[in-house]
Q: What sequence folds into this?
């Protein structure tokens, strides 16, 4: 199993450009999450999904959109990138609702917005 | 608003020593408290976790101590090794969605 994979690994954008980050998991997990990690701020939840076709806002959703058209994929979109969105983005997944389930993280995408 | 406060921000420990990282929370609705370990260039990975109905959980050299009345929990790493050098995040889960609120992280360096 590959676990959680993220594409791309690195990206540089100019202010105002758009891009989509792809997360894929092969563990048949129901729940998926997008976080951003910034120095001194830990990991902050952007959006999450509790199943195919569903999405919900997390702690810092502004400027981002997500889609979960297939159970195994969770896409994060930036419609008009801003320098404040320079960060490392992590995707995670977990198995099921209700239990104390481990979140499995991908390797991250380092995004720089100039 | 930082719902989970973590300290210290960085920590240097000698090989064989004890590393202690502390976290405090405010929201009594949190029901699960995991610790994640992150090596440079990698995603976080679950290290150990505790439910609030127990006061301590030990797995090998890693122990979580949990004080429900004080709303505090801590990670103890016994016999710290250079391979333990990483960033450690405490977290807390609140019910539906299995959503985690993370602390700000502690960068641990274990020196020879």
A:
């Amino acid at each position: 199993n590959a676990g959680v994979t993220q594409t791309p690994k690195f990206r540089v954008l100019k202010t105002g450009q758009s891009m989509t980050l792809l997360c894929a998991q092969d563990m048949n997990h129901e729940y998926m999450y997008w976080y951003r990690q910034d120095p001194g701020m830990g990991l902050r939840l952007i959006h999450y999904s509790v199943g195919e076709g569903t999405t919900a806002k997390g702690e810092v959703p502004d400027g981002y959109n997500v889609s979960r058209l297939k159970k195994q994929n969770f896409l994060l979109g930036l419609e008009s990138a801003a320098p404040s969105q320079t960060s490392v983005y992590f995707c995670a997944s977990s198995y099921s609702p209700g239990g104390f389930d481990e979140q499995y993280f991908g390797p991250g995408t380092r995004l720089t917005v100039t | 608003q930082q719902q989970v406060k973590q300290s210290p921000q960085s920590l240097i420990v000698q090989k064989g020593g004890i590393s202690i990282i502390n976290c405090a929370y405010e929201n009594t609705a949190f029901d699960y408290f995991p610790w994640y370990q992150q090596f440079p260039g990698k995603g976080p990975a679950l290290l150990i976790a505790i439910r609030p109905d127990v006061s301590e959980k030990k797995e090998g050299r890693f122990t979580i101590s949990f004080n429900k009345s004080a709303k505090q929990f801590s990670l103890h790493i016994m016999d710290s090794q250079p391979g333990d050098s990483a960033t450690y995040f405490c977290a807390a889960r609140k019910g539906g969605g299995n959503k985690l609120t993370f602390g700000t992280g502690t960068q641990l360096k274990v020196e020879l």
